[in-house]
Amino acid sequence: MRSNPILFTSLLVGLNFTFIASSHALGWHHGISLGINHYNSDAQIAFYNKQTQQVESISANFKADSTSQILDNQLNLSGYSTNHTWLIDYKINQYSLEDKLAQDERYTLKGINAQWLAGYKVLELHANTRVYAMAGLNYHKQKFSYPNNTGQNKHSDSTTNTLVGLRLDIPLSRDWVAHIKGDTKLTGEQKSTRATIALNYRFSRNFTLLAEYQNQNLKTTKATSSSSSFYQFDGNINQISLKTTLIW
Predict the structure, then answer these.
(1) Is 170:129 a contact under the CB 8 Å cutoff?
(2) In this structure, is the dihedral angle defined by the CA atoms of residues 7, 13, 17 and 23, taken in order, positive or negative?
(3) Phi and psi (nearest 5°) for 3?
(4) In the list 9, 177, 195, 230, which could disulfide-bond 200, CB 3.0-4.6 Å?
(5) pLDDT in tens, 227-246
């Protein structure tokens, strides 16, 4: 399903802040995070004709090489609201990467992602260890560019999908908490699974420091503008983040 990224993001942010404003006095607490991010991607990209015969294949190792790409990758806002029975989790981020070739040519990979998940506690173990079943929506847009005889050829793909997953919160001590999350897409043309592990340190009443690693396996097939051929992206997108979270 195609979607307008500005509309989707605006609705996501508006929904969360409306919820925060209405739930603050009802035993909920909230957090919102900003920080620095590093991305890389290893991918196999194949091109097919209309008879589904492969005509070309590319192996690419994407990373942020320029200052502008590094700055683009810092757009990352995430947050949550919880009463320890219900959990709301949301995130907006983008990435800009390239794989340099000979003679100033390059492959480029750019993407934007927005998600909203709601969870319910399905299991609570000793020491407040909790397991949440999660479900929600994810918007993802990705653009791949590569050189050919006529210049830079571009392929763009955007979808909105249903997500389901699990989240495990493990208190390690009074100030340290580990988070383990996994989810997969149920609908749409894209196939995606993600795994995230994070370590959270609460260094004051209203602030925590969060170190996080996320690996996403993404497979997408997209027809070209003429619909006479298509390309397939099959690879991993890795994200390492160090964030400060304001909690209240």
Answers:
(1) yes
(2) positive
(3) -150, 155
(4) 177
(5) 557 889 999 999 999 999 99
